[in-house]
Amino acid sequence: MAKRIEPVRKNVKEIMEDLVAGHREAAITGPQGAAVYLERTLDKQHSLPNAVKAIAYDLLAEARAGLQNWDGVEEALQGFLRNLPDLEEAMGHGYRKALEATTALERGVQARTELGDFPGALDLCERAIELDLGAHWQAKRDSLLWAR
Fold first, then answer.
1. CA pair distance 96, 84, nearest whole angstrom
2. pLDDT tens, 42-98?
3. Contact 26, 34 (CB under 8 A)
4. Predicted local confidence at residue 6, as pLDDT
5. What's the pLDDT at 12?
6. What is d(CA 3, CA 16) in angstroms, rounded to the nearest whole number?
7. Where are the alpha helices (H) located in the chain, listed in sequence order?
8. In which region does residue 142 sit, left (phi positive, over 0), alpha (psi from -120 to 50) or beta (all else)?
């Protein structure tokens, strides 16, 4: 009788590394290739851990910004924000470094500004300040205070 092959079990960080490597390879062809890879991954990988989804949505926001798909950036931003608490839980001590490497909030401000949603862009600046993502967010917020 043949021996049954056991499924490979990966932890969240290993799955995240696989996602980032796949994205890097797909992005060689440009933002369209990166977006297609990430969209397919999110659509077909139903068991993807939520922490990995947060990173996938972050990368998707960046790719869609490169395509000037501002509504798509907003959609990716919402996915990122929805899965952010799971990223914190999964990354533990590495959460701060992972969060600081993300660009979904930056792209969200860009998209909302392009779409004329200045109060929404201001809200994202305040969210970034709450997350302690750096002093440059205060300058961005200050430049949008007129939108209140």
1. 12
2. 999 888 999 999 999 999 999 999 999 999 999 999 999 999 999 999 999 999 999
3. yes
4. 72
5. 92
6. 30
7. 12-26, 31-44, 50-66, 70-91, 95-101, 104-114, 118-130, 136-144
8. alpha
